[in-house]
Design brief:
Blueprint: E1 12-13, E2 20-21, H1 38-86, H2 90-115
Antiparallel strand pairs: 1-2
Length: about 150
């Protein structure tokens, strides 16, 4: 595979646009991802920041959901105990008790999601330099890049 700009042997593939790059035109060679140009580097950084923001917000949402599930589970358990002593209705006792169990289990599930650490990122397939497929083993076509335009 040859570099598009210099017609030299490519060492990697740009992580953003999928172009082959040589030693001379590779940006951020020591970073986690290799890019072919400054606009591609900026776009990769912007995408990484957006991804980290979404992951952080998702974790915060899971923590809030766990708290509210625990709170509603506790209130349902209190309602079940109150129904046991005040209103001896089997349906009401079983319903509120079941809700307490389901809500507490949901709180545990959300709590586990909020406490999970993201899996370590593996080195990009395109950095190995020996890939003939710019899209890697994912089976997707490499995205085409329009000159001068970044999404």
């Amino acid at each position: 595979m040859r570099c598009l700009s210099h017609k030299a042997e490519a060492i990697a593939i740009c992580s953003y646009c999928g172009r082959a790059v040589c030693d001379e035109c590779a940006h951020s060679i020591h970073a986690e991802r290799i890019s072919c140009s400054e606009p591609c580097s900026i776009a990769l950084t912007r995408n990484e920041v957006a991804l980290q923001t979404m992951l952080q917000q998702g974790k915060q949402n899971a923590k809030a959901s766990a708290f509210y599930c625990y709170l509603c589970g506790a209130l349902s358990a209190i309602a079940a105990v109150t129904a046991w002593f005040m209103l001896p209705s089997p349906f009401l006792i079983l319903f509120t008790g079941g809700c307490a169990i389901v809500l507490t289990a949901s709180g545990v599930w959300y709590g586990r999601i909020a406490g999970e650490k993201p899996a370590p990122r593996s080195r990009s397939h395109s950095q190995s330099g020996n890939s003939a497929d710019p899209a890697g083993a994912r089976g997707r076509a490499a995205p085409e890049r329009l000159e001068g335009a970044l999404p």
